[in-house]
Amino acid sequence: MYNIELIKTFVIKKHGNQKRKQGSPYYLHPFAVADILKQNNFPLEYQIVGYMHDLLEDTDTTEEEIINLTNKDILECIKLLTKKEGYIMEEYINNIANNEMAKIVKIVDRLHNLSELKFANIEFQKKYISETNKYFIPLSK
Questions:
Q1: In terms of C-beta density within 10 A (0-12 exposed, 13-18 middle, 19 or more buried), how is residue 55 classed?
Q2: Spatial contact of 69 and 2, defined as CB atoms under 8 Å apart
Q3: What is the pLDDT along the chain (141 residues), one digit of tens a residue?
Q4: In terms of Cα–Cα distance, which of 54, 126, 125 is closest to 83?
Q5: Whole-angstrom distance, CA of residue 93 vs CA of residue 31
Q6: CA–CA separation, 30 vs 78, rounded Å?
Q7: How far, in Å, CA of 65 to CA of 8, rounded?
Q8: Are 51 and 74 in contact (CB under 8 A)?
Q9: What span, in angstroms and rounded, lies between the C-alpha atoms of 97 and 81?
Q10: 99: Cβ–Cβ under 8 A, 6 or more apart, which residues?
Q11: Which of 5, 36, 39, 92 is the residue whose CA sits 20 to 30 A from 104?
Q12: pLDDT in the model for residue 141
């Protein structure tokens, strides 16, 4: 089974001093995503992906570190959620759409980010809402 406390500690350590746009510790975002998944009775694996979804993209975390704490299915899901340099949004969304866990976690991630959009500048807000309407609302259906 999974050691959730160890995973949470790992996430806090890896996100280190990163901050959200409003200045709060970054790790509060993946914790919020995991909490929304828990409150809505999604399986523990979904919650773990919620905690870890930004690690490969935003930290120096390795795939090996993730696999040592979880399993190959969780790692694969986190890899799908990781935006690589030069990614094409349509391909990114199509890959997520084919993995139910990645799709659900991404939608919850987007919802949480939307709830804090007021802290971003107006140009970012417009772009983010436009992307949400174009890609993420259809993904949620």
A1: buried
A2: yes
A3: 899 999 999 999 999 999 998 999 999 999 999 999 999 999 999 999 999 999 999 999 999 999 999 999 999 999 999 999 999 999 999 999 999 999 999 999 999 999 999 999 999 999 999 999 999 999 998
A4: 54
A5: 23
A6: 12
A7: 13
A8: no
A9: 11
A10: 76, 77, 80
A11: 5
A12: 87
Q: In angstroms, rounded to a whole number, what is the distance separating the alpha carbons of residues 83 and 112?
A: 18
Helix axes 100-115, 89-97, angle to 10 degrees: 120
| Structural domains of the chain, ranges and CATH numbers in brackets | 4-139 (1.10.3210.10)
- Which pair of structure tokens corresponds to residue 95? 């890959």
Which residues have C-beta within 8 Å of that of residue 78, sequence separation ≥ 6? 49, 52, 53, 55, 56, 66
Query: What's the Rg (C-alpha) of the chain?
Result: 15
- Residue 34 tokens read as 């995991």
